[in-house]
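Structure tokens please, single chain.
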Amino acid sequence: RLLFTSRTPQLGGMILQSPIASAGLVVLPPSVCKALSSYDLFRNYAKMNDVHCRTLIIHGKDDKMVPFDHAQMLFPLVRDKHPPLWIEGAGHHDMPDDLCLNAVANFVAFVEERANRILRDHSSSALRDSASSKYDNDRSPNWLFGLLARVAR
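Here you go.
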């Protein structure tokens, strides 16, 4: 999943629930994992630097399947941090729906507001640019396409 997000720059946000920092760290002691790191297929800690979108991490502090340490390892590596949700007393499969859904709703609202703000900023600058455009004066059909191209950038 992190590989996809690093190759999709227009992505607005990513939510990681109980993420693994490394598959090796889930099953092996850190010293062994480090020695065998080239065989670890899920080195998410190494991919975080390539993720540029807003990121929310949700993790239960009592997770026995993917220890909470993984979230603590990944969070400092997130470039565009959203406040994380660390849930006391929650494991891997017993995350409280109300807390998780509320965190997701707040995250989506933040990402949508950011996207709308970017669109507003691009639209207003494109409109200003079009006012002085040669297409704006004669209102030929091309003026709209020039405006849309500027907004899309």
